[in-house]
Write a structure and sequence with these properties.
By secondary structure, the protein is of the alpha/beta class. The chain is about 45% helix and about 15% strand. It contains 7 helices and 6 strands. The chain has a 6-stranded parallel β-sheet with strand order 3-2-4-5-1-6, with helices on both faces. Strand 2, helix 3 and strand 3 form a beta-alpha-beta unit. The structure holds adenosine-5'-triphosphate (ATP) and magnesium ion. The site of magnesium ion has 4 residues, from helix 2.
Length: about 200
C-alpha cells in the first residue's frame, strides 16, 4: 500500500466513524415506539411490491397481516397467488370485478369501493392486526369513490401498535399529513416504455 492509499483509508475510516456517531445519536433520539403509517406514492414502479416486502417482513416475525387491494389487476399477481395458497393467516381481500377503469358504471364502482372499505375498516380497528396494507386506495380517494375524511379518520384512529401501508399514485395533502413516512417513487424509466412486456415475478 502506498502513502496515498493509506491516507485515503485513514480519511475513509474517520468519515465512517463520524457517520456512525451521527447515526447512533439519531437512533438514541428515536424513543417513540408505535406503529407507523407509510404512504408509497409517485409514478415510478415499486409501490405495491414494496408494500408486499413489508408483508413478508411482518410474516417473518409471525405478525398478523391484512391486505386489501382496491383495484383488481388485469391479471393474477404472484403475491395474490402466494398469499391465497400459502398464507391462510393473512386477511386478504381484493376489490374484484366490480371496478372498471372506464367509469361507465360509476355507481357500480362506488358500491365495489364501499364493499372493499367495509372489509378494510374493521382491520383498522382491530388491535390484533400488526400490519394492514391498503393497496391502490389513493385512486378511490381521487375519484371520490370513498370519502377521504372517513379514510383519514380511520387511519389516524387505528390501534397504536398497528402499522399501515397505503399505496397508489397521488394521495392528497390531507393523506400525506396523517402518514408518518411518505415516499414518492420517481419514474426515471420503465421497461414497458421500451416495448418490453410486463414480466412475471417482477411486474405481477
Ligand atoms: P409494482 O407493483 O411493480 O411495485 P407499482 O405498485 O409501483 O408497481 P402500479 O401503478 O400499481 O405501480 O402499477 C402496477 C404495474 O404497472 C406493474 O406491473 C408495474 O411494473 C407497472 N408500472 C408501474 N409504474 C410504471 C410506469 N411508470 N410505466 C409503466 N408501467 C409501470
Ligand atoms: Mg401498485
Amino acid at each position: 500500500m502506498n502513502d496515498n492509499d493509506e491516507l485515503k483509508n485513514q480519511k475513509h475510516k474517520s468519515a465512517m466513524e463520524k457517520q456512525k456517531a451521527k447515526v447512533d445519536a439519531r437512533i438514541e433520539q428515536a424513543s417513540a415506539e408505535r406503529g407507523v403509517a407509510v404512504l408509497l406514492t409517485g409514478n415510478g414502479k415499486g409501490k405495491s411490491s414494496s408494500a408486499f416486502g413489508m408483508v413478508l417482513r411482518a410474516l417473518g416475525y409471525g405478525q398478523k397481516v391484512g391486505v386489501v387491494q382496491f383495484i383488481k389487476g388485469q391479471q393474477l399477481s404472484g403475491e395474490e397467488i402466494f398469499i391465497r395458497e400459502h398464507c391462510p393467516q393473512v386477511a386478504f381481500y381484493q376489490m374484484g370485478t366490480g371496478f372498471t377503469w372506464n367509469t361507465q358504471d360509476r355507481s357500480g364502482d362506488i358500491a365495489a369501493a364501499e364493499k372493499t372499505w367495509a372489509f378494510a375498516e374493521p382491520l383498522l380497528q382491530d388491535p390484533s392486526f400488526d400490519l394492514v396494507v391498503l393497496d391502490e386506495i389513493t385512486y378511490m380517494l381521487a375519484y371520490g369513490y370513498l370519502d377521504e375524511a372517513k379514510v383519514i379518520d380511520a387511519l389516524a384512529n387505528r390501534p397504536r401498535e398497528q402499522s399501515v401501508v397505503v399505496t397508489g399514485r397521488g394521495g392528497g395533502t390531507a393523506l400525506r399529513e396523517v402518514m408518518d413516512t411518505v415516499s414518492e417513487i420517481k419514474d426515471i424509466k420503465h421497461a414497458f416504455a421500451a416495448g418490453i412486456k410486463a414480466r412475471k415475478g417482477v411486474d405481477y
